[in-house]
Structures are given as structure tokens and as C-alpha cells.
Amino acid sequence: MTTSEDNHLPRHVAIIMDGNNRFAKKKQLQKGDGHREGKNVLDPIVEHCRKVGVQALTVFAFSSENWNRPQYEVDLLMKLLEETIHEQIPRMEKFEISLRFIGDRSRLSTELKQLMLHAEQRTAKFTHMTLTIAISYGGMWDIAHTAQQIAQLVKDEKIDVNQINTEMFGQMISLGDLTPVDLLIRTGGDFRLSNFLLWQAAYAELYFTQTLWPEFTVKELEYAFNVFSGRERRFGKTSEQIQQEHIENL
Question: Any idea which residues are catalytic in this one (predicted)?
């Protein structure tokens, strides 16, 4: 099997799965049907990432701001999240994928929190790929929460304030044990990050598409990978420096 290093694929892919409600309106479906259609799109995307050697896939399922949506929609999304987790556990075991969740769990139901923990524990041993679902998540919350944790360590005199740096912060924030996001995909036609993985995607390549999430396919995912492979990632350096480093590594 090829790996992300061999064929210049991203090691860590993040997806903002946007456009479910617009899909339902476009197809003249009932309210909520767009979310149901969108739920079914994830499986082939996960399988393809696993097949080609992507190490981590992180998807935005429910944001901190989504709590402000109409209650019927919030209830439906919570129900679909439970269904998704139940369906994904045997799939994760079949493909040997670790399933994780990030976000503020304090507003979630006890049943959903228990189900999330159960799924994490059952799949923790798998190392072929990590699938992370962001639920009740916001990038600003993530950064503030990490700052609180570090502040507590200083207060407890476990670390000195002078030890705080970007490396420590990056290790303690959500997904800190994974590689940073290389490619961030947003479906649905909007050109913004919407408070998703603000720290982890600091140097990510961005791919925006008009395609609504329920219509997103493996073929377009492959196209996004091709776009990624054609971009020069400089991380603050010049093109000449990158080219010289490439020559030296040959």
C-alpha cells in the first residue's frame, strides 16, 4: 500500500462538511433530510483515506455555534451523531481505525458522552488511521481550554511559566499527538474556516468547493489531493530554500 509520504498526499486531512440544508432545499426534501444524506457520504471518504495512506481524518460534525440552531435541528443532529457512532464502531474495527472525538462535552447528553467514550476505548488500539469527529467544537474554545490547562499546571507549580511555548501548547491542544493538518477542505461554497482547528490548521493548504457535502465524492477528494500535491509548502521559507532542501534530500 502506498503512503502519504510516497505519493505526496496529505498526512492529516480536515473537512468542514457544509451544505446539508442547502442540498435538502435544492432537492426539495423535508427538513433534516439533508443531514441524513450527508451522514452517508462519510463512509466512502473514510475508506478512501484509509486506502491511500492518509494518517488522520478530522471532520466537523457539530460546532459550538450550532447550539444556536432551531431546537428540532439540534435534536436531529444529536440523534444522527448517535447513529453515526453506533454504525462506525464495527467499521472502525473492520478497517482498524481509531475513532476519537474533540469538543466541549459538557453540553452533551450523558448517553452520548458514554457512547463516545465507549467508541474511543474500543478502537484505541488501532493505528492504521485516526478518524476524529468534532462535536460541540470551536477552535477558540479549544485554544482557551488549553490555556486553562496550562495555567492550572503553573498554579500547581508543576511547570514554570517560562516553560510555556508553542511546542508545549501544540502538544496539549486537541489532536496534539497527531501531525498538524496538511489539507483543510470545505464544501458548500463558503470561504471561511468557521472557527475550526484554528491552531492545528495554521499552515494547512485550503481547498474550497461549491459542491454541497451530500454531493461530495471520492473523485473530488482525489482532485483535492492532486491540488494539494501541486502546491509548494514553504512554512515561511523562500522557494529557493525549499528547492535547495529538496536537492539535498535526494
Answer: 18, 66
State how many domains the chain has. Answer: 1
Can 182 be counted among the known catalytic residues? no
Tell whether 7 is covered by a domain. Answer: no
Residue 20's domain is classified under what CATH number?
3.40.1180.10
Is residue 159 domain-resident?
yes
**107 marked as binding residue:** no
In a domain, 198, yes or no: yes
Which structural domain range is residue 234 located in?
Answer: 12-249
C-alpha cell read off for 164: 510555556
Q: How many CB atoms lie within 10 A of CB 215?
A: 18
pLDDT digits (tens, 9 = 90+) for 139-191: 999 999 999 999 999 999 999 999 999 999 999 999 999 999 999 999 999 99
Q: Known binder of ligand: residue 118?
A: no
Residues 1-25 have pLDDT tens digits of 444 444 589 999 999 999 999 999 9
The mean pLDDT value for 212-224 works out to 98
68 among known catalytic residues: no
Is 31 labelled as part of a ligand binding site?
yes
- pTM given for the model: 0.90
pLDDT classification of 32: cutoffs 50, 70, 90: confident
**195 marked as part of a ligand binding site:** no
Within-domain flag for 6: no
20 annotated binding-site participant: yes
Give the active site residue among 33, 66, 104, 195. Answer: 66
- Candidate list 18, 33, 68, 160, residue with the active-site label: 18
Quote the pLDDT of residue 6.
46
Sheet with 183-186, strands from edge to edge, namely 97-102, 129-137, 56-63, 12-16, 183-186, 205-208
Nearest Cα neighbor of 193 from 135, 138, 234, 235 is 138
